[in-house]
């Protein structure tokens, strides 16, 4: 309690999902610590790929790391053994280089590795942890924590096998879930374009952040920043995480222009929006060049793009000038300046370096009223692609998320499709309005979504194989129960799983209260959300502060929390949690 996030006393925890390695689309792992990026609150991120399953094959499900090495070190975990190995030859290398050097050092090209780039080494507050070429445990600065411990990488190789409680039932469950996912209407789109297809939907719906949330629609992107153009001109390969039929990842290469020869994996919608409309850019070449740099250095996409868009608005308004930027021209869409700031952030140089070290405290360094345009929650900058102030449940759920503004825990995607009320009631168990601009039932929808996404992460499922992205025919609680029965022999119900999600959520809330003391004040969305959307099709839409506060009260009541957002004693008793957080490290 109360430790400096970058001190040796802080712990860094890696956890493979409970059913990772067993079921379809169950490849994910979580990383938790005290946040390096925010106000010292909850640090947590999640990633897919192959590392989680490999960790289990090697005989481990969790790693708890404490202390600090005397020199750069990497962990070599294989078949029940853990070795500490010298990483001096890796220090200063980017994540692509690190991947190849470790495989060569150990003489095995099938090793699965998580590692940091130069951003983590240089303690950039929003450095991430990279697996493969682009799988990222992104937000809250987990790469910064890893760097503070002089831990460059964790390499894993396992030749063991997993033993489900009922192998025959597990095979049947896997086959059924595979067919269920691949028969949905969303499957052909996701397996072809991945999350890139979300961009066009968000932009044309007027729910995207343009130029640091000044606008909500980016006309310049039409016919240019498009998933089909990416597929035709840049995509070279389709990839998948462990045992996942979605195959939503891509390999790409730029063949012409100033960035010719640039290659990598990705990008996701997050990257497309963050280095597209958020910085005033309508071209794929910058998105892909920035994606490669971000992943090589090990920087979080959301924070990096958001801070750059903030600086560009400060430049637009005359709050900063070329003396502040070291000669960089920060006009919207200036590609070379965007890339220069990425280099600076990772290398701790110039204006970008200051941003990387100070994060949300950068407004105090710059001064001159710059903080008015810096949108944060719990010390975390608001996610660059998101501009969902017109949608009630998503605004509430994302704003009350444990680590700060968080679409991965709070995106209530089913509210966007105007589904019949009877369909929504069947899913959520209570009346929920079909109109995303209505507050009816939305506090419950927010709570339900937070519990569901928490369970998906805890079990190790990819959310895009579940109902999370908006497909009612994907995996849900019932399928989670089927897997747990086959893998563990547990007879659990959907209600019991939801209660587990609730228990985790309350435990996280207790951690936040202990470490920051910030409760209700941290659950209010950025000020820009209470200002009207400037452009059609949602022109004039905004959150009303009085209505939001009323919905927040209802949300707290559903959760069994006080008006200030703290768990009541009877809630902790019901969830079998101690009044004093003895469950917390």
Task: Chart the SSEs and their pairings.
Layout: E1 11-16, E2 29-34, E3 42-47, H1 51-57, E4 62-66, E5 73-78, E6 81-86, H2 95-106, E7 112-115, H3 118-121, E8 129-131, E9 135-137, H4 142-148, E10 151-157, H5 167-182, H6 187-193, H7 197-204, H8 227-233, E11 235-239, E12 249-253, E13 263-265, H9 269-274, H10 284-297, H11 301-316, H12 322-325, H13 335-347, H14 350-358, H15 362-366, E14 376-377, E15 380-381, H16 392-399, H17 407-410, H18 421-428, H19 442-459, H20 477-488, H21 494-515, H22 545-559, H23 569-574
Parallel strand pairs: 5-10
Antiparallel strand pairs: 1-2, 1-4, 2-3, 5-6, 7-8, 7-10, 8-9, 11-12, 12-13, 14-15
Provide the descriptors you would attach to this structure in a database record.
585 residues, Aldehyde Ferredoxin Oxidoreductase,  A, domain 1, Aldehyde Ferredoxin Oxidoreductase Protein, subunit A, domain 2, Aldehyde Ferredoxin Oxidoreductase Protein, subunit A, domain 3, 3 domains, 6-stranded mixed β-sheet, 4-stranded antiparallel β-sheet, 23 helices, globular
How would you explain this protein's 3D organization?
The chain is α+β, with helices and mostly antiparallel strands and 585 residues long. It has 3 domains: 11-156, Aldehyde Ferredoxin Oxidoreductase,  A, domain 1 (4-Layer Sandwich), CATH 3.60.9; 184-381, Aldehyde Ferredoxin Oxidoreductase Protein, subunit A, domain 2, CATH 1.10.569; 396-460 and 493-574, Orthogonal Bundle (Aldehyde Ferredoxin Oxidoreductase Protein, subunit A, domain 3), CATH 1.10.599.10. It has helices at residues 51-57, 95-106, 118-121, 142-148, 167-182, 187-193, 197-204, 227-233, 269-274, 284-297, 301-316, 322-325, 335-347, 350-358, 362-366, 392-399, 407-410, 421-428, 442-459, 477-488, 494-515, 545-559, 569-574; strands spanning 11-16, 29-34, 42-47, 62-66, 73-78, 81-86, 112-115, 129-131, 135-137, 151-157, 235-239, 249-253, 263-265, 376-377, 380-381. The protein has a 6-stranded mixed sheet. A 4-stranded antiparallel sheet has the order 3-2-1-4, with helices on both faces. α16 (392-399) crosses α19. The longest helix is centred in the last third of the chain and has 22 residues, at 494-515. The protein is globular.
């Amino acid at each position: 309690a109360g430790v400096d996030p970058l001190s040796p006393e802080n712990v860094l925890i890696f956890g493979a999902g409970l059913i990772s390695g067993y079921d379809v689309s169950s490849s994910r792992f979580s990383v938790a610590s005290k946040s390096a990026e925010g106000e010292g609150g909850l640090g947590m991120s999640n990633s897919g790929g192959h590392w989680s399953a490999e960790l289990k094959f090697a005989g481990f499900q969790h790693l708890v790391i404490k202390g600090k090495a005397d020199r750069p070190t990497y962990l070599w975990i294989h078949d029940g053994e853990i070795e500490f190995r010298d990483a001096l030859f890796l220090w200063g290398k980017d994540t692509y280089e690190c991947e190849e050097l470790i495989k060569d050092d150990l003489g095995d090209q099938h090793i699965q590795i998580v590692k940091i780039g130069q951003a983590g080494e240089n303690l950039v507050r929003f450095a991430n942890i990279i697996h493969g070429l682009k799988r990222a445990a992104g937000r809250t600065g987990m790469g910064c924590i890893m760097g503070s411990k002089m831990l460059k990488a964790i390499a894993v190789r396992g030749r063991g096998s997993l033993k489900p409680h009922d192998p025959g039932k597990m095979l049947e469950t896997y086959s059924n879930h595979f067919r269920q996912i691949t028969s949905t209407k969303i499957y052909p789109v996701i397996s072809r374009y991945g999350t890139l297809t979300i961009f066009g939907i968000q932009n044309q719906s007027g729910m995207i952040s343009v130029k640091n949330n000044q606008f909500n629609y980016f006309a310049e992107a039409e016919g240019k920043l498009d998933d089909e153009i990416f597929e035709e001109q840049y995509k070279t390969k389709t990839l998948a995480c462990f045992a996942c039929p979605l195959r939503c990842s891509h390999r790409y290469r730029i063949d012409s222009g100033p960035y010719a020869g640039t290659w990598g994996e990705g990008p996701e919608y997050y990257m497309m929006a963050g280095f597209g409309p958020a910085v005033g850019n309508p071209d794929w070449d910058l998105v892909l060049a920035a994606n490669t740099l971000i992943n090589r250095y090990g920087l979080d996409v959301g924070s990096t793009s958001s801070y750059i868009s903030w600086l560009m608005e400060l430049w637009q308004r005359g709050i900063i000038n070329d003396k502040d930027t070291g000669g960089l021209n920060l006009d919207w869409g200036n590609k070379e300046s965007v890339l220069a700031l990425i280099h600076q952030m990772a290398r701790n140089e110039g204006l970008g370096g200051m941003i990387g070290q100070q994060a949300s405290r950068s407004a105090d360094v710059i001064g001159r009223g710059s903080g008015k345009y810096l949108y944060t929650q719990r010390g975390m900058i608001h996610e660059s692609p998101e501009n969902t102030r017109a949608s009630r449940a998503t605004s509430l759920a994302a704003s009350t998320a444990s680590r700060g503004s968080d679409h991965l825990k709070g995106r209530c995607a089913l509210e966007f499709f105007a589904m019949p009320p009877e369909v929504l009631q069947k899913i959520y168990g209570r009346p929920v309005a079909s109109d995303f601009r209505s507050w009816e039932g939305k506090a419950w929808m927010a709570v339900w979504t937070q519990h569901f996404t928490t369970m998906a992460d805890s079990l190790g499922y990819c959310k895009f194989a579940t109902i999370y992205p908006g497909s009612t025919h994907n995996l849900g609680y019932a399928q989670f129960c089927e897997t747990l029965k086959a893998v563990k022999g547990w007879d659990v119900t959907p209600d019991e799983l939801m209660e587990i999600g609730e228990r985790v959520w309350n435990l996280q809330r207790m951690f936040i209260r202990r470490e920051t003391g910030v409760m209700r004040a941290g659950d209010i969305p950025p000020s820009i959300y209470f200002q009207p959307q400037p452009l059609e099709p949602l022109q004039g839409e905004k959150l009303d502060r009085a209505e939001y506060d009323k919905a927040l009260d209802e949300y707290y009541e559903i959760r069994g929390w006080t008006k200030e957002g703290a768990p009541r004693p009877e809630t902790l008793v019901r969830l079998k949690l101690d009044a004093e957080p003895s469950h917390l490290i």
